């Protein structure tokens, strides 16, 4: 379970830095497509759920006169989730803000919060919620760590709403 959370977190981070092959808009906003696939055990369903996420990302990066670097990224996505044993499916639309601010010190953060509705089968709605934030001051000291992705407050970041 922790492995799949790390995979989602890694995919989010890597996508921003490595897979940006974008077309520029007149306002400096870049757009890019991304697809993330994986699997996560959902305890309230008692089965693994495969997910297929299609993302359209929009980002803008700039540096201020003082030398601070800023990256603002926004994902619009659709999720399709399928239970491995029951083959029930869920579908959701969502958005996820992401920001990175560097120098001196650094802040890196993003969050997810959406509800997936059942499309086939008699399953419950699924709620996905997690957030991640790291702030390091100019001396390199950790000031803030919110990590619902890897062992934080929401260990099971996909929860059932209603009866399974």
How is this structure best described in words?
This protein is mainly beta. It has one domain (2-161). It is built from one helix and nine strands. The chain has one helix at 2-17, and strands spanning 23-24, 30-42, 47-63, 69-83, 89-102, 106-120, 125-136, 142-147, 158-161. Strands 1, 2, 3, 4, 5, 6, 7, 8 and 9 form a nine-stranded antiparallel sheet that branches. A hairpin with a 3-residue loop joins β5 (89-102) and β6 (106-120). The chain is elongated and about 55 Å long.
Summarize the structure.
This protein is mostly beta strands and 164 residues long. Helices cover 10% and strands 60% of the residues. The chain has one domain (2-161).
Secondary-structure element sequence?
HEEEEEEEEE
Quantity of strands, as a count: 9
Low-confidence stretches: 1-25
Summarize the main sheet.
Answer: 9 strands, antiparallel
**Backbone CA Rg:** 17 Å
Coarse morphology = elongated
Distance between the termini: 20 Å
Total number of distinct structural domains: 1
Roughly what fraction of the amino acids lie in strands? over 45%
Structural class, please? Answer: mainly beta
Return the average pLDDT rounded to an integer.
Answer: 80
Give the number of helices: 1
> Percent range for helical residues?
under 10%
């Amino acid at each position: 379970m922790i492995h799949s959370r790390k995979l989602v977190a890694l995919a989010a981070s890597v996508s921003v830095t490595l897979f940006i092959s974008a077309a520029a808009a007149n306002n400096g906003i870049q757009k890019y497509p991304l697809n993330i696939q994986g699997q996560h055990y959902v305890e309230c369903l008692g089965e693994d759920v495969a997910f297929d996420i299609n993302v359209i990302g929009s980002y803008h990066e700039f540096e201020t006169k003082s030398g601070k670097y800023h990256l603002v990224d926004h994902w619009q996505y659709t999720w399709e989730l399928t239970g491995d044993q029951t083959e029930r499916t869920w579908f959701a639309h969502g958005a996820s803000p992401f920001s990175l601010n560097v120098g001196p010190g650094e802040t890196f953060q993003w969050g997810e919060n959406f509800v997936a509705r059942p499309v086939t089968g008699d399953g419950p709605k699924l709620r996905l919620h997690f957030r991640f934030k790291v702030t390091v001051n100019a001396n390199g000291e950790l000031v803030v760590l919110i990590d619902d992705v890897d062992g934080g407050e929401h260990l099971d970041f996909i929860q059932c709403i209603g009866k399974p």
